[in-house]
Write a structure and sequence with these properties.
The chain is an alpha/beta fold. It contains 17 helices and 14 strands. The chain binds 2-acetamido-2-deoxy-beta-D-glucopyranose (2 copies). Keywords: Membrane, Transmembrane, Transmembrane helix.
Length: 470
């Protein structure tokens, strides 16, 4: 985190009432106290204040841990069942093996809110799409097709159609090859059975097929508030040329309506074109938005670029300038940010279990599968690392819809379908395996800094406080 800008904004004050939460469900109360504190002292926190505070906290960590042990004992036991190898420690966590410290760090980070200045172009008038992107000149070229039907032999009355299909381990293995082939990538139906879900209106599909550049998001199960992009930061050019699409289910739409956010005659709320999704494919609710998040290339078949943005954040930068800065300028097909502090996958898992976002059993099963397929712990000192971190913050994904980017999105999605809904857990595995299986086919993925992510996508938290265990 170089060039850290002092940010004059204190914590956003939510008007969502008592149900609102901060980013991490267990920490709502601490967070809201922090908010009042923030308003009270009315000073600008700088990054150095944050570092100082973090060091002080780490220094006092052992006492803090003891004091709070009884409160968190149960949760701690939960996480100690998990994963073995925390001899990989990230940056500031070196001195602590305590997730609690990480929570405090997170809180501090949010309070201090380091965001960094991004060297965007001055204006969208100067944009020129590089040749690489118009003809994929320097990107791996191949053509992908997607399995849309599964045929079932008669007599298999155990068969239940699934949105993700029934991918065998062999098919999963082959799906990683960067070559012309047909693979599982959601939207699998079985003739003779009803739809496997994510049903869209023909009118919406027609609209979606016209989009060339898309900014999109989803709210299912009323999990998030509606976040309106900061229009003063978005150019007229982007507002006119980009499809802003928000997928919602009927229930979420009623919740939005009850809060006064009703679609207008053309189906828009603010800049968002509302697209209603019927028949959500997964009983495991958090998996449903992943369909949109990862399968943008399937939902918007003519789109050449897409930006996925979670509704827990607000778009605060011009999407065209984001594409220029993070794809064109870096010659990347896929851009995603680092996690704010952790790069170690096993730490991330421990935290997810602690927060009850996933069960220890499910997380263990997933990690064991990955370990046995060669995923090792992240070693920050290894110069040959394929990634700068194994832990992304995936609330903002900027993509060119190139073959490699589409393939990666499919295989990552398939991991989320097969295992837990926490996509951080499969990010590195899917990427490293893709690279390993295709040593001669480059894939240009760029991980940018979390503080940059925060400049473009400001964290505001989810609506629902419930932790989600699968
Ligand atoms: C793209 O590939 C061409 C050769 O095929 C090469 O001359 C050029 O420098 C490459 N451009 C970039 C940006 O890598
Ligand atoms: C892959 O598909 C593309 C487009 O369909 C085609 O032009 C190309 O020849 C195919 N490559 C191979 C190796 O079959």
């Amino acid at each position: 985190m170089t060039s850290v800008k002092q940010n004059s904004e204190l914590l956003p004050v939510r008007r969502g009432g008592p149900g609102s939460i901060f980013d991490y469900p267990g920490y709502f109360r601490v967070a809201s106290r922090g908010r009042r504190f923030g308003r009270f002292i009315k000073m600008r926190f700088s990054y150095s204040v944050f570092v100082l505070a973090a060091l002080v906290l780490i220094y006092f960590a052992p006492c803090g841990f003891k004091a709070s042990f009884h409160v968190t004992q149960e949760a701690q036991q939960g996480s100690s069942n998990v994963v073995k190898p925390p001899d990989c420690k990230s940056n500031l966590l070196v001195l602590s093996n305590v997730i609690l410290i990480d929570h405090i760090l997170f809180l501090l980070l949010v309070l201090c809110y380091p965001s960094c200045k991004i060297d965007f172009l001055e204006s969208v008038n100067d944009l020129v799409e590089p040749k690489d992107f118009t003809d994929f000149r320097n990107f791996t070229k191949f053509s992908l097709e997607y399995i849309d039907k599964e045929y079932v032999s008669f007599g298999t009355n155990m068969y239940k159609p699934r949105f993700g299909g029934h991918q065998t381990l062999q098919e999963r293995e082959e799906s990683f090859y960067a070559k012309n082939h047909t693979l599982h990538c959601g939207f699998v139906n079985a003739p003779g059975f009803s739809s496997t879900g994510f049903d869209l209106d023909e009118k919406d599909k027609k609209f979606m097929s016209t989009c060339k550049i898309v900014v999109y998001s989803a709210i299912f199960g009323s999990f998030d508030f509606l976040r309106k992009p900061a229009k003063n930061k978005i150019s007229d050019f982007s507002l006119e040329n980009i499809c802003f699409v928000l997928f919602v289910d009927e229930n979420s739409l009623s919740t939005l309506s009850s809060e006064g956010n009703n679609p207008d005659d053309r189906g828009y709320i603010d800049v968002w074109r509302i697209v209603i999704v019927g028949n959500l494919p997964f009983d495991n609710m958090p998996k449903n938005p992943k369909v949109a998040k990862f399968l943008g290339h399937r939902l918007f078949p003519s789109a050449r670029y897409s930006i996925w943005i979670d509704m827990k954040v607000r778009l605060e930068a011009d999407p065209m300038l984001m594409i220029e800065r993070f794809l064109w300028k870096t010659r990347s097909e896929y851009a995603i940010s680092n996690h704010y502090v952790r790069y170690c996958l096993w730490e991330e898992v421990a935290r997810n279990v602690f927060l009850k976002k996933v069960t220890a059993t499910a997380a263990n099963e997933q990690l064991k599968a990955y370990q046995s397929d060669g995923l090792t712990k992240f070693d920050p000192s290894n110069p040959n690392n394929l990634l700068p971190s194994y832990n992304p913050e995936s609330c903002l994904i900027i993509r060119a819809h190139t073959p490699m980017s589409n393939l990666y999105s499919c295989v990552w999605f398939n991991e989320v379908v097969r295992f837990t809904n926490r996509d951080q857990l499969s990010y590195a595995y899917a990427y490293v395996k893709l690279r390993r299986m295709n040593p001669n086919s480059p894939f240009y993925l760029h991980m940018f800094k979390d503080c940059e992510r925060r400049t473009m996508a400001k964290p505001l938290g989810h609506r629902l406080p419930h932790a989600v265990v699968q």
